Structures are given as C-alpha cells and as structure tokens.
C-alpha cells in the first residue's frame, strides 16, 4: 500500500545578495521510495521543478552542514535551529533557498511516523519498486 506525507512551505529564493522572493515549495514523502524526499519548487513564470534527495540529508542538514555535490543543506546559524539554506546545483548553475526550520521539522516528523528512520528497508514492497523509483528520480532530474 502506497502512503505519503505532503506539506507546503514558503521559502525564499535567494537570487542575489540584493534580490530574493518567496515561493511555495511542496514537500512530499512516499513509502514507495522511503529513502527520499521530493521538493517541488513553484517558480514564477516557470514550470515547477522537482528535486529528489535523501531524507536523511534533510534531517541532518537542519542541525549541521550536510551534502556533497548537487544538494547541500546547512543551518543559517550553527547554534540555532531557526533557518536552513538549501543549495541545489547542476553544473555551474545553482539555486539557493532559505526556509524556516520549523515546517521542515514538522514534515520530517510526519515522515518518521509513517516510516521511522532506519526502517526504510523493512517495507515489503520496496525492492519490488526500486527500479521504478530510480527511473522516476532520474527522469525528474533530467527534466529539472
């Protein structure tokens, strides 16, 4: 049985030091792909862009700098859980988003109630849907 958790969070898209604007971002977690979270960014004038990355990266990034490569998550202030920065990069192009930590933690708490961290592999249908999930992730990244 496929279950999911969804939330919408307002984030600041940091275009430059002088320019930023608020955008809605849909957070989604599905038991059919229990290791990943999906963030869909609704940028004005563009088609929505979805990024999928490890749920554990988002969990860890709330408290300390995490990630290598395309996705990096880091708290704005190391000793505070107030805000987090999410940096997405493809080649030399990158986008930077700032979010309050509270709605991310509420979303992550709901994902943990659905599938506790560390129990992802125990889902009976996970192996059966692994290829499908990987194909979908690659398709989303190719479209993004």
Keywords:
single chain, 144 residues, alpha+beta, 7-stranded antiparallel β-sheet
Give structural notes.
This protein has helices at residues 55-61, 101-114, 126-143, and strands spanning 4-14, 20-30, 36-41, 49-54, 71-75, 83-90, 93-100. It has a seven-stranded antiparallel beta sheet, sandwiched between helices. It is globular, with a radius of gyration of 15 Å. By secondary structure, the protein is of the alpha+beta class. It is built from three helices and seven strands. It starts with a strand and ends with a helix. The model has no long low-confidence stretch (mean pLDDT 88). It is 27% helix and 38% strand. 20% of the residues are buried.
Question: What is the string of SSEs from the N terminus onward?
Answer: EEEEHEEEHH
- Which structural class do the helices and strands define? alpha+beta
Low-confidence segments, given as residue ranges, are none
Radius of gyration using CA atoms only: 15 Å
What's the overall average pLDDT, rounded? 88
State the helix count: 3
What is the oligomeric state here?
single chain
State the total count of DSSP E strands.
7
Distance between the termini: 28 Å
Major sheet characteristics = 7 strands, antiparallel
Sum up the overall morphology in one term. globular
Largest beta sheet: strand ordering? 4-3-2-1-7-6-5
Q: Helical content, roughly? A: 25-40%
* Share in β-strands: 35-45%
């Amino acid at each position: 049985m496929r279950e999911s958790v969804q939330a919408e969070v307002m984030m600041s898209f940091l275009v430059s030091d002088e320019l930023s604007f608020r955008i809605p971002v849909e957070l989604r977690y599905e038991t059919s792909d229990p290791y990943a979270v999906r963030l869909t960014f609704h940028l004005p004038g563009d088609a929505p862009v979805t990024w999928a990355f490890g749920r554990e990266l988002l969990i860890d990034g709330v408290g300390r700098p995490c990630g290598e490569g395309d996705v990096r998550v880091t708290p704005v202030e190391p000793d505070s859980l107030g805000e987090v920065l999410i940096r997405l990069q493809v080649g030399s192009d990158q986008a930077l988003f700032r979010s309050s930590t509270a709605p991310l933690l509420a979303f992550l708490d709901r994902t943990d109630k659905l599938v506790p961290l560390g129990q992802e592999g125990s889902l009976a249908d996970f192996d059966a849907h692994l290829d499908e999930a990987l194909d979908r992730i690659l398709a989303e990244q190719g479209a993004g």
